[in-house]
Amino acid sequence: MPTTLEQLQTYARQELARIYGETEHQDLYVMFKAKEKNLFSRVSQDPFGMEYLTAKLAMACLVWEYACLESALNEDSFRKVLFRQVMDGFRSPKMMPLATAFSDYYFTCEKEPSEPPGILLVMRIMGRLNLQDPGAATPKTPEAPVPFVFQTLLETLEGFRSSFENQCLENFLNHYGKTR
Fold it and tell me: Which tens digit of pLDDT belongs to each residue from 143-152?
């Protein structure tokens, strides 16, 4: 019978395959390009997809760690299974830009644990892609509307977070039957 760690590694590989197979970043890009022509005129689909995917992977790792803690899978080796699987996928020198982006997103959230990760990730995506809308809300102009791109990315990542969290918690509780 496989150990708990081996079971978690198998589950992590399955979830990563699912995440890598999803294509919502393509739909988002087409929508943003059509709705925000000026803002997206200097961003091509591949860089956007890379940023979105690595931010989503960072969110998945944070959710996995939370779900492990909530399911009393407290060992560091359990909590970091997904993170290690992601990083193992970035071992090739060709993957260095993805590894760098992923690390940036992940550690941005780690540095600010009291802030909602979805907001931190979207702010970082916007900054890394230089998607600052001059008419958007800032601390000096909080009455300005929240940019469509920001709001849509946040809703999409938060939807993923919620769904992935529920899947992980359900899987962990069904297989390991513990809660904190």
Answer: 667 789 999 9
